[in-house]
From TrEMBL:
CDD domains: ASKHA_NBD_ROK_BsFRK-like. Its EC number is 2.7.1.4. Coiled coil: none annotated. This is fructokinase. Its cofactor is Mg(2+). It catalyses: D-fructose + ATP = D-fructose 6-phosphate + ADP + H(+). Belongs to the ROK (NagC/XylR) family. SUPFAM superfamilies: Actin-like ATPase domain. The keyword Acetylation does not apply. It comes from Pontixanthobacter luteolus. GO terms for molecular function: ATP binding; fructokinase activity; metal ion binding. PANTHER family: FRUCTOKINASE (PTHR42742:SF3), TRANSCRIPTIONAL REPRESSOR MPRA (PTHR42742).
């Protein structure tokens, strides 16, 4: 993004189901102010976000990386909307339209995971990779894919957390927590799914608890599937669950077992933690701000 000669700033909004992260800066790597607000009703949350951005003066463009599902088809009258989210009050929220009307500036819009994937590809753990997939494992599970330097959309955006993994032999009876698909990946390996069957977060369970093996197996399956289907060079795995000690190592080990040394690009494939840490989402939002 070339902001030469511009007097204003770019704004970034990482719109999460739990909190909104806001930032302003001269570029995605030159953030001068950052702020967080809890995700409340749309009216309260969007109003607070807009007021904070306005407090920093002229904004030339805004990038929004939002929880979803969202509408990304520019030809649709619902572009920029959060669609059929289960989060109370947020279904059919025109989040991009709100900021476009309030500020009268160009708006960039994509999913939160596509934003994080873009940030990791350009400035984080995948900056030397030709392609990258970003998987976040927390309250939900989502994924973004970067091919040719751009997020993959297709008919809509990917919903990687809703594939059906092969069930672990010690996890055959849990019905899953996803309200749509029950035992999809999100319904089996997200934070709420872990707590629903073991009564604690993964990091709170003893290191020898079978849960560690089970969750690593499910997450290794999504990594394996992404490599098999897209040949993504870097698989970046973030989110709260991935902060569990040794989980990433377990996922790598199990993914290697699943690959059986078959993939032709195996020397290049890597499964890594986010290089930008918790800043991937907001950096991605800033990257989505259109050039002006």
């Amino acid at each position: 993004m070339d902001l030469a000669g511009k007097t204003g700033l770019i704004g970034g909004i990482e719109a999460g189901g739990t909190k909104f992260v806001l930032a302003v800066g001269h570029s995605p790597t030159e953030i001068i102010a950052r702020h967080e607000i809890p995700t409340d009703s749309p009216a309260n949350t969007l109003g607070q976000a807009a007021a904070w951005l306005e407090s920093h003066g002229q904004i030339d463009a805004i990038g929004i990386a939002s929880f979803g599902p969202v509408e990304l088809d520019r030809s649709s009258p619902r572009w920029g909307h959060i669609t059929n989210t289960p989060k109370p009050g947020w279904a059919n929220c025109d989040i991009a339209g709100f900021f476009a009307e309030r500020f009268g500036v160009p708006i960039g819009f994509d999913t939160d995971v596509n934003g994080a994937a873009l940030a990791e590809h350009q400035h984080g753990a995948g900056r030397d990779a030709s392609s990258l997939a970003y998987i976040t494992v927390g309250t939900g599970i989502g994924g973004g894919l970067i091919l040719g330097g751009k997020p993959v959309h297709g008919a809509a955006h990917p919903e990687m957390g809703h594939i059906y993994p092969r069930r672990h032999s010690h996890d055959m009876n849990f019905e899953g927590t996803c309200p749509h698909h029950r035992d999809c990946l999100e319904g089996l390996a997200s934070g709420p799914a872990i707590k629903a069957r073991w009564g604690a977060s993964l990091s709170e369970l003893p290191s020898d608890h079978i849960a560690h093996e089970i969750i690593a197996d499910y997450l290794a399956q999504i990594a394996h599937s992404l490599i098999a289907m897209t040949a993504a060079e870097a698989i970046v795995m973030g989110g709260g669950v991935m902060k569990t000690p040794r989980l990433l190592d377990r996922v790598r080990k199990r993914a290697a077992e699943l690959s059986a040394a078959y993939f032709p690009g195996q020397a290049k494939h890597k499964i890594v933690a986010p290089g930008l840490g918790d800043q991937a989402g907001i950096t991605g939002a800033m990257l989505l701000a259109p050039s002006v």
